[in-house]
Amino acid sequence: MKRIFALAAALLTAGVVCLSQTKQEQVIENGGTGPWKSVAVGDATLPTHTIYRPKDLRGYVEKNGKIPVLLYANGACANNNLEMSRLLSEVASYGYLVLAIGPYEDMPDDKFYAQWKGVVRGWYPETKEVAIMGNGERLTPYTEAELAARAAEQEAARKAAEAAAKKKKVKKAVQEPAPFRTYARQLLEAMDWITDRNADITSDYYHLVDLDKVAAMGQSCGGAQVLAVAHDPRIKTCMIFNSGMGEMAMSGASKESLANLHTPMLYINGGTADVAYENANGDYGRIKDLPVVKISTLDGHHGTYYEKHAGAFAVVARMWLNWQLKGLLGDSALFLNDEYGKAFYPDWTFDRKNW
After folding, report:
1. Does one domain contain both 130 and 79?
2. 126 lies in which domain range?
3. pTM, full prediction
């Protein structure tokens, strides 16, 4: 009887520990369009990252087997993943455990995503007269009157702040640089963390994770971070979004990093309006022996990440993962069959080699 009570106490303690690991969670866009509704999670044992995963993680594993892992690094090497929260939530809803650099934060509302239309809109005047988004929406460039109004609004706000500070006789504070920088090693630190959690009987992830099915993805500067650690043998495929090294060096990576690659590679960029377009083309040309696919769209450097469920870029991400990590050969058609790809995305350009 004492043994039974002791075992019950141990199991209760383990349950409390498991619950305490998850400190916050939030549902984004109703958990995505996939069959396994996802949540964004802040875990006290991994405060430097946000976790996106199926809410019913154990249910997923019981039906499908252990869950694959996606490591993610942010654009601008920023210390938050808010811009990509829709994409990461969407991918997770198809049965992936996403470990994204950047601590958990309350996820944004539609107003946050709407502001990216302004970013895209301001990006295009030098490249084309009208930006056509992945969802078919047409964005025209800012007019001179709109640009002047924005400048006037910013100047008025600056003067108002100076007047308020002078009235209160508050000395102007020295603004510290934002702590937005991250480092490539954080991708592998997340991998180390989930490896430990998978082996810890008190963990939410105990024996639920497939450590042989791991992908790494990064956008813009985050793509460089992926290339910096892509030599790690635990990584089975890499996804480089709106990024490439070309002749530059960034975040520990350069064109020399391409010699250390050992996995199938996916590059997707936003076409000639994407600042990473030429660099992505350069990487594609330098990769000699590995299987690689390069997709060029018309969406610019910010892709379709702000659209509902992150638009077409999210579709590309989860279909590549389905093929590379889950062996779903039907999803390879988007990358290997020109007729198939053009049927869905007629304005995209598909390149591939070594398949």
Report:
1. no
2. 117-167
3. 0.81
Whether residues 152 and 281 share a domain: the answer is no
- Kindly report, residue by residue over 242-276, the tens digit of the pLDDT: 999 999 999 999 999 999 999 999 999 999 888 89
Helix axes 221-229, 185-199, angle to 10 degrees: 60
Q: How many domains does the chain have?
A: 2
pLDDT digits (tens, 9 = 90+) for 288-340: 999 999 999 988 888 889 888 999 999 999 999 999 999 999 999 999 999 99
Structure tokens at 27: 């549902």
Alpha-carbon dihedral 239, 242, 248, 250, rounded to 10 degrees: -70
Tokens of 246: 């070309």
pLDDT for res 2:
46
| β-bridge mates for residue 239, sequence order | 217, 266
Tokens of 208: 């639920």
> Order of strands, edge to edge, in the sheet holding 38-43?
22-26, 38-43, 49-54, 97-101, 67-73, 209-219, 237-241, 265-269, 292-296, 349-353
Closest CA to 18 of 50, 57, 67: 57
- Residue 5 belongs to a domain: no
Alpha-carbon Rg for the chain in angstroms: 22
| H or E segment to which residue 188 belongs | helix 185-199
| Residue 337 and residue 192 share a domain | yes
Nearest to 47 by CA among 106, 109, 105: 105
Please check whether residue 42 is in contact with residue 24, taking contact to mean a CB–CB distance below 8 angstroms: yes
Three-class secondary structure of residue 55 per DSSP: coil
Distances in whole angstroms, Cα of residue 8 to Cα of each of 2, 21, 29, 32, 295 = 10, 20, 39, 37, 55
Residue 259, both tokens: 């010699």
Which region, left, alpha or beta, applies to residue 259 given φ > 0 means left and ψ of -120 to 50 means alpha?
alpha
* 63 and 195 belong to one structural domain: yes
Q: CB neighbours (10 Å) of residue 24?
A: 14
Cα–Cα distance for residue pair 223/7, rounded to 1 Å: 47
CA–CA distance, 101 with 298 (Å, rounded to integer): 27
Inter-residue contact 341 to 350 (CB < 8 Å) = yes
pLDDT tens-digit readout, 157-176:
888 888 877 776 544 444 44
